[in-house]
Structure formats: C-alpha cells, structure tokens
Amino acid sequence: MPITAGPNAAGPNTARPGSIAELKAVAQPPEVRGRRNAEHWTASLYLRRLSPYVTWVLLKTSISANGVTGLMILTGWATAAALLIPGIAGAALALVLGQMQMLVDCCDGEVARWRRTSSPAGVFLDKVGHYTTEALIPIVLGIRAAGFPFDTPDDFLWTTLGLLLALVIVLNKALNDMVHVARANAGLEKLADKQGESEPSQALVAKLRRAARFVPFHRLYHSVELTMLVFVFAVVGLFIGGVLADRILLVALVPLSMLALVGHFVAIMASKRVRS
C-alpha cells in the first residue's frame, strides 16, 4: 500500500505516489489551485491537468525539486533563444517552449510538495527563471526587429528599445517583490494571496484598476503572452515582412509597458499592502 505524503508529515517523503489521484491530493491542494496571483491563467486553464502526469514521471527519477526548477530556467532561456531564428519558425518554436516552461514550472512545486522538500532556495530559483526569461525575450525581440545583419548605427534603435522594454518589465515584476521586502523589513505579516489584499483603498484608483481588466494590456509582459504576441506578429509578418512586424510590436509594447509600470506603482501605493 502506498505511503501518502500528508501536508503535516515530518521529513522528506521518499515514497512514490500510488495513483494520479493520490499525487493530485498532495501536490495540488485547494490552497494551491485557489491562489489568485501565483497561478498563471494557462495553469488554471489546462497545464495543471497535464502536470501531474509529468510529475509522476519525474518522481520516478532522482531529480530534486530544485533540479526541476533548473529545467524550467533552461526552458525559459531556450524560449528566448528560439526567437533568434528569423521568421515564423523561431516564433512558433518559442511559443511551444513558452508553454513547456510553464508546464515545468507547475511540476517543480508538485515535486517539492510530494517529497516535502520546499525551500527558500526553490523560491529563489523560480524567481531567477521568470525574471531572466522575461528579460531575455524582449532583448531578443529587439534583435529580431533590427534584422540581420545589423546596420550601424540605425539598427541600434531597435536593440535599445528591446533593452528598454526588458528593463521596464523587470522593474514591473520587482515591484511585487519590493512589497514583500518592505513588509518583512517593517515587521508586518506576509500578505495572503487573495483579492482584497491588493484592492486599492482610493476610489479613483480602484475604478481605474477595474477598468484595466477590460483592456488587460498590463498582462502582456509574461513570457507566455510575449511569445504569443511575437507569434501573432510573425504571422502578420508573412504579409508585410517579418522585420516590419517585429518593429511594430516592439514600438507598441514599450509605451504600454511604461504605462503598466506607473499604474502598478500607483495601485500598490493606494492599497493596504504597504500600509502598517
């Protein structure tokens, strides 16, 4: 009879799950599936239905949860590298790899929960994976927009825009982590991952935030959405030229990212997340 890895059990669990249902009960508890911010929409839509089967295979190996996170990081970097392939081929490969990265991202936590090996190192590596991937994709988009070979100094405009977009995306991601650091340094308790914690207390900001949900451009800067956009514009590029399509996308993303950054900052300052 299989040993069930209960959430309150002590010590690492070396047993293997006896069934997918047993694995799901431990690796996908309601508090995980119900998280408001920590789950990407692709996970809620379909990846969490696939991930237990991949986790099942991983648990038959000796790979650690941090090792799985390492695979996630490498998959993310490969996603960005795929965009170095010109035209729709690179965009299609990046689209597939972007989904694979999110699938592996689901699995590392499931392996850690089953084996009871969750650690700060795993959280840190997860952050490294997402920060670096979401910085590398816009950098490579700038290279795509510049075309091959580069003409200097004219094409430096596009690579510079790619770097600028990467910087803004990283800053936007860092704002959420800055909130946690600020609360920890102030001796406040950790924020619960639920709706009310991030709702702005000022009426005007709250209305603007709700309005943004109808045009959620602020959600375009995750690796999944970025690879989707690059693929869509690569299809458009079949008709207007790939380099031109990449340039149009890059020019549109840069100002929208700045608007998202400012809006995110204002929403945080207007919420109780940074209030004692």
From TrEMBL:
Q: Which InterPro entries match?
A: CDP-OH_P_trans, CDP-OH_PTrfase_TM_dom
Q: Which GO terms describe its cellular component?
A: membrane
Q: Output the Pfam families linked to this UniProt entry.
A: CDP-OH_P_transf (PF01066)
Query: Transmembrane residues, as ranges?
Result: 68-95, 156-175, 220-242, 248-270
What residue range is the signal peptide? Answer: none
Q: Name one GO molecular function term.
A: phosphotransferase activity, for other substituted phosphate groups
Enumerate the UniProt keywords alphabetically.
Answer: Membrane, Transmembrane, Transmembrane helix
Tell me a GO biological process for this protein.
phospholipid biosynthetic process
Taxonomically, the superkingdom here is: Bacteria
Name assigned to this protein: CDP-alcohol phosphatidyltransferase family protein
Q: Which organism is it from?
A: Herbiconiux sp. A18JL235
